[in-house]
């Protein structure tokens, strides 16, 4: 009887493994765009993936994990010296400390479907070694997926010119929230 129970358990795990499929993202064609806001306007740019994958069970998205190379942080709305200056400042300890924190990470699981191709996701986002919960919607279309996240930078100890921590900044204030748009190909 004990051998039969072990055999049935092994069969159940084998079937479960067959129905779960991990799909690696193509780090060359997948991308992240970011947009940060200040009182006088905004700036935007991009980041590259180091690695990542999505897990599907019975052809439905169930989880994912991504590592972002923070040293690839690029500004796309400026050129020349101003571009280099802002990129350097964003990589500095005032913001993302990319020399000390070369990667950021998102690990998530999917709850229920919110539409034909959309899923409610709950995850843990790690920036500068600090991990915080995030909720977002991710949509899958064939071999592509997309998600948008709003992130409060102060949750990750990025307080430079934040009106939440420094008074009387006037038009020098930088808003706490920034947006990430993730486009994945796998």
Give structural notes:
- Keywords: Signal.
- The protein is an alpha+beta fold.
- Helix content is 16%, strand content 54%.
- It has helices spanning 2-19, 80-91, and strands at residues 20-24, 31-38, 41-57, 60-75, 103-113, 118-127, 130-141, 144-152, 174-185.
- It has an eight-stranded antiparallel barrel.
- A hairpin with a 2-residue loop joins strand 7 (130-141) and strand 8 (144-152).
- The chain is globular, with a radius of gyration of 20 Å.
- The termini are far apart.
- Mean pLDDT is 92; it is low at 4-16.
Topology (elements, then pairings):
Blueprint: H1 2-19, E1 20-24, E2 31-38, E3 41-57, E4 60-75, H2 80-91, E5 103-113, E6 118-127, E7 130-141, E8 144-152, E9 174-185
Antiparallel strand pairs: 1-3, 2-3, 2-9, 3-4, 4-5, 5-6, 6-7, 7-8, 8-9
Keywords: Signal
Signal peptide: 1-19
Organism: Cellulophaga fucicola
């Amino acid at each position: 009887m004990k051998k039969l129970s072990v055999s049935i358990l092994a069969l159940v795990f084998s079937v479960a493994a067959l129905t779960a499929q991990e799909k690696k993202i193509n780090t060359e064609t997948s991308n992240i765009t970011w947009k940060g806001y200040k009182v006088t306007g905004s700036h935007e740019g991009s980041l590259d993936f180091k690695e990542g994958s999505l897990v599907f069970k019975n052809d439905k998205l169930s989880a994912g994990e991504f590592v972002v190379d923070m040293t690839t942080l690029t500004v796309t709305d400026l050129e020349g010296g101003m571009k280099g200056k802002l990129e350097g400042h964003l990589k500095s300890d005032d913001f993302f400390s990319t020399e000390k924190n070369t990667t950021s990470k998102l690990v998530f699981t999917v709850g229920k479907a919110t539409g034909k191709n959309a899923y409610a996701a709950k995850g843990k986002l790690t920036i500068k070694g600090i991990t915080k919960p995030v909720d977002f919607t991710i949509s899958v279309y064939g071999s592509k997926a997309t998600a948008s996240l709003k992130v409060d930078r102060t949750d990750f100890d990025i307080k430079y010119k934040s009106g939440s921590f420094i008074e009387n900044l006037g038009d020098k204030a930088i808003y706490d929230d920034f947006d990430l748009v993730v486009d994945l190909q796998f």
